[in-house]
Amino acid sequence: MIYDAAVIGAGAMGSAALWRCSMRGAKVIGFEQFYPGNDKGSSYGESRMIHAVSFADPYYTPFVLQSMHIWRELEDVCGLSLVRSNGALITATADSVFLQKTEQSAQEHQVPYTLLTSVEHNTKYPQRIVRDNEITLYEKNAGFALPEACIVNMAEQALLHGADIRSGAKVTNIAWKTDTAVISAEHTEFKARRVIFCAGAWTKWLIPDLHLPLEVERQVQFWTLPCRAEDAEPGGDFAPEQFPVFLHEYAPDSLMFGYPSLDSRTIKLVARQTGQITHPDMLDRIAHQEDAEVVTAYINTFLPGLIPEPLNAKVCMYTNTPDKRFILGAPNAYPTAILLAGFSGLGFKFAPIFGDIAADLALTGATAWDISQFSPDRFQENN
Q: Do the bridges between strand 267-272 and strand 254-259 make them parallel or antiparallel, or are there none, so unpaired?
């Protein structure tokens, strides 16, 4: 049997690609070395931020807007609430390029937003105090997704549409033929006309001939308790209806991501900081005291209602490109391959639309979307 497409990795991107390929009637197989919704890669940890405005480039915003439509489609077909819109507060100093790009993306793509002065912010959201020279952009339709549930349900929809998903199946080799690829996994060979790589942190080791300049960076997610237990409960100060997700450029090149309580007990914080460069199979999965220092300092400065010392933590990985742009497309060296990689901790919100674009490329050879800025060949062009 020759599959129309084989998907390597069934995390956020892979499960989306499997779903979008299978719903078009394609014969598709997926290989996941762990299982969909696992905690070994990059798409786990209770919540992921969803916002349409982009602090990187307005180019990204239409992709997120379309992704939101597909997220809602997933909710409709599985009958679950997977993406919750409780708003997003994006804060930086008034002269910050970060904030300027964020507002530009909102204006260019007509994303509803409001600007709050520090006084307005601190009056409405005293749970997180911002400084006098800071401005907050509030995106009312933003919020968060439940990553594990999203992945599991995309994979289940793929199965319902006839996909074959092999969990615990690590791909050990890919032999490229003229118009097919032979994939070795589970001591068996599988043939496919197209191979969609959604292997996350393992990508560059699966296709070493491309010499992709990807770096796998260790990052840590933290959960802490409120000073008053009732503040995490429904209706409390840190409940979703009271506490929007937030993104704060609190120092140059330093970002803090914050989420409301989803378990009526803890609040999640993630500091985007320079982490250890590692191999995904050698990742230090133990959170150490020094990992928590940035989060503790942030709580002491901006979040007076939280206990500064985190209660627990989970280690994850970001896979970064040198220019911080994603990789999406077919490389010239392997035209039967489609690569989705290098999402730098920001990719989850894009999974549905990127899975759909991957299905376009795999099944028709083209897409109506402009993905030129994500070309996997741009690194070879710069050498």
A: antiparallel
Q: Is the pTM of this model over 0.85?
A: yes
User: What is the chain's pLDDT, residue by residue, as a tens digit (383 residues)?
Assistant: 999 999 999 999 999 999 999 999 999 999 999 999 999 999 999 999 999 999 989 999 999 999 999 999 999 999 999 999 999 999 999 999 999 999 999 999 999 999 999 999 999 999 999 999 999 999 999 999 999 999 999 999 999 999 999 999 999 999 999 899 999 999 999 999 999 999 999 999 999 999 999 999 999 999 999 999 999 999 999 999 999 999 999 999 899 999 999 999 999 999 987 889 999 999 999 999 999 999 999 999 999 999 999 999 999 999 999 999 999 999 999 999 999 999 988 999 999 999 999 999 999 999 999 999 999 999 885 54
Q: Give first-to-last CA distance, the chain, whole Å.
A: 40
Q: Length of the chain, please?
A: 383
- What is d(CA 14, CA 344) in angstroms, rounded to the nearest whole number? 16
Q: Which domains does the chain have, with CATH numbers?
A: 2-43+148-214+323-381 (3.50.50.60), 86-143+215-320 (3.30.9.10)
The four Cα atoms 305, 307, 313, 317 give a dihedral, to 10 degrees, of 50
Map residue 236 onto helix, strand or coil.
coil
Distance CA 20, CA 172 (A): 25
Tell me the backbone φ, ψ of residue 135, rounded to 5 degrees. -125, 145
- Residue 280 to residues 154, 219, 298: CA-CA distances in angstroms? 24, 12, 28
Q: Name the DSSP letter for residue 175.
A: E
| Strand pairing report for 312-320 and 245-251 | unpaired
Q: What is the DSSP letter of 45?
A: S
Query: Residue 370 to residues 59, 264, 300, 375: CA-CA distances in angstroms?
Result: 9, 42, 44, 10
Instruction: Identify the three-state secondary structure at position 202.
Output: helix
Nearest to 338 by CA among 2, 3, 1, 6: 6
Exposed e or buried b per residue across 204-213, where buried means at least 16 C-beta atoms within 10 angstroms of its C-beta: bebbeebebe
The closest alpha carbon to 92, from 143, 137, 144, belongs to 137
Q: Both tokens of residue 114?
A: 């409001």
